[in-house]
Amino acid sequence: MSVTYCPSFSFRRIGAMVLRHWYLLRSSWPRLFELMYWPMVQMFMWGFLQLGVARQTGTFVAATATFLAAFFLWDALFRGQLGFSMSFLEEMWARNLANLMITPLRPIEFVLSLMAMSVIRLMVGFLPVTIVAIWFFGFNLWGLGVALAIFFANLFLTAWAVGMLCSGLVLRNGMGAEGLAWSLMFILLPLACVYYPVTTLPVWVQPVACALPPTAVFEGMRALVLEQTFRPDLMAWAFGLNVLWFAAGAFSFFWLLRGAREVGSLISVGE
Amino acid sequence: MKDRTTLPAIEASRLLKRYGDSAAVNAISFAVGTGSITGLLGGNGAGKTTTIGMIMGLVAPTSGSVKVFGADMAREPYRSLYRMNFESPYVDLPHRLTVRENLKVFGLLYGLDNIADRIARLADVLDLTEFLDRAAGKISAGQKTRVALAKALINEPDLLVLDEPTASLDPDTADWIRGHLERYRAEKNATILLASHNMYEVERLCDRVIMMKRGNIVDDGAPESLIARYGRQNLEEVFLDIARARRQPKLEKDAAE
User: Fold this and answer.
1) List of domains in chain B
2) Which of A97, A98, A123, B9 qualifies as a cystine partner to B191, CB 3.0-4.6 A?
3) Could you state, in order of their start, the residue ranges of all structural domains in chain A?
């Protein structure tokens, strides 16, 4: 019965970690509720703002629909990262990390399971909210079709890059760094031009904004909603930047994990 | 497999761990033979946890090396991790998952084929059946220890590292756990490394004791030979002699007299 063979990569081990987090979500209605609560609140806020603006200014509905589309894409970016980081933090809160680190689970498998969980957690909250948006505001996010999948792919790559950085910082520095999981992504909010075009920013800030992968996604979304034009150039730019961001995020995670082994923080999880 | 019988289970060589200017573990060397139960003893801050951390690959040594079944745990831990497991009251299992769910997840992580059967066997042997479907956070301290032991045995490890396995248990449950560990070693020829502050437990279970103080190994031997060398009645008195530096061991020939 003893285990006599241990492959260097195993989808089964990734599946085990996804199952572990699925068990957790399934057992805790507050966790499930929280996944839907904020997206729902924000969707209503932006939806009514959109209606108010349209009524007061007589703006074409498509123009104001960018609010809701921008909200959904920003939420995918933020909650994609939060889903990654929260799944990681659950291991820290449960004091389970040392148990995992002494199993054959490779760090790359751990990271892949966190990515899978970020998608699952986002979808659990996202699907009902997008359906309510159709019913309440006549806005169908899924109507963006293939473009939406490309937007999502790019946003998830950014979310995972930031999630890996946050998780690595918590690994290396302890739970004192957990606040980064909620706050780090917000530094992108003004610079990524979620609700306004890049040209709104001061000229000297625009190059910084253009170096952020989500900026190209939000510009691409506005082109699609306002001009019904899909911009492959923007998506290619976003993807190129994301390759760099993802590589930097992965490097930081593995480097900080190595640092955690050096300072002994894997056996002394705490502040 | 050749290395299961010819290599020591654990081989530490000039193992050093520094945190800043202080050495938590100070260039210690020791080997633990396959099939033995070895106690790692010492007061708080002696370096036991750091040593265990390096054996498990959780802490990187500053210099030196520790090999488990021939694999350097700082460089190639995954060559041996699947043959090892660990239990400590300071490491938890997720509280919201049931005992069965926890064991299933760890069974999958260790690549077990027939996990349901393995869980059923462990539940039977460790008397978990009654609370197998209860949340791990809602069982008593004694039950938690048995579940943690079940987790540590899920892959039938060749090396079992235990950090205070009977801490906070009533004498009956603690005795029962010790009996189970003795049987497991006998059945599997498993190696057990045990850190404990319970000297009765160490005397009962261990073939050999490594005494640590301030990061150094200060003595090493079978419990009865240590007791004889220090001229004491039991291991607890030897521990206090070492911790308080109040008595030096007799020379071997004096102890023999």
Assistant:
1) 2-90+158-221 (3.40.50.300)
2) B9
3) 11-263
